[in-house]
Amino acid sequence: LFEGFLPPKKGRKKRLNALKDEQATIIFYESPRRLKRTLKDIGEIIGDRPAVVTRELTKMNEEIIRGTVSKLLSYVSKHEPRGEIVLIIGKPDPNVFFK
By the 8 A CB rule, do 87 and 51 touch? Predict the structure, then answer.
């Protein structure tokens, strides 16, 4: 399910609440400066699902980080992201996990 950018501030949590029971993979665009806040909100509202943060896809500095929402939040708190971000939230499946 492609969502594009979440609304800034107002309406952001409302949109995430509407997605919390979604069984499909959800794809967002996000800015580096809002990524931590978005991961925090997703963790609180949608849950600690499997997730992927991608940066600079199809470019020389492409980076793909896999984990759960909470692990990705921890990672981006220590490594300030830069560039174009695509955030992929997996379906709530207990058989899907990343080490």
Answer: yes
Q: Which domains does the chain have, with CATH numbers?
A: 2-89 (3.30.950.10)
10 Å CB burial of residue 21 (0-12, 13-18, 19+) is exposed
User: HSE of 63 in the Cβ direction (CA atoms, 13 Å)?
Assistant: 13
Q: pLDDT of the chain along its 99 residues, tens only?
A: 999 999 988 899 999 999 999 999 999 999 999 999 999 999 999 999 999 999 988 898 889 999 999 999 999 999 988 899 999 999 887 776 655
For 20, the token pair is 């919390």
